[in-house]
Amino acid sequence: MKKSRAVTIHHKLEVLIKEMVEREIQYSDALDEFEKIFLETASKKYKGNKSKVAKAIGIHRNTLHSRAKVLKIKKMI
């Protein structure tokens, strides 16, 4: 990843996190929402192919399945 892109992503996350802290969003809720959106976005990119999604984001396919189930991501289960 290029450094300039990393800084941009870092800055975007920093702004979002500041807003979440101001709204007193619970840490666990923030993590769950981030993970859900992250997995849904990866799933769309790879057209729901769980093996490709898991490989792209660096987790085992079974872990992907269990996290999708816990987070109630229906299109991925």
3D architecture notes:
- By secondary structure, the protein is an all-alpha fold.
- It is built from four helices and no strands.
- It has one domain: Homeodomain-like (Arc Repressor Mutant, subunit A).
- It has helices spanning 3-22, 27-45, 50-57, 61-70.
- Helix 3 packs across helix 4 (61-70).
Summarize the topology.
Blueprint: H1 3-22, H2 27-45, H3 50-57, H4 61-70
Helix pairs in contact: 2-3, 3-4
Number of domains: 1
Bin the helical content: over 70%
CATH topology: Arc Repressor Mutant, subunit A
Total beta strands: 0
Low-confidence stretches: none
Quickly list its features.
mainly alpha; Arc Repressor Mutant, subunit A; 4 helices; 77 residues; flat
Short recap of the structure:
The protein is mainly alpha-helical and 77 residues long. The chain has 4 helices and no strands. The chain has a single domain, classed as Arc Repressor Mutant, subunit A (Orthogonal Bundle), CATH 1.10.10.
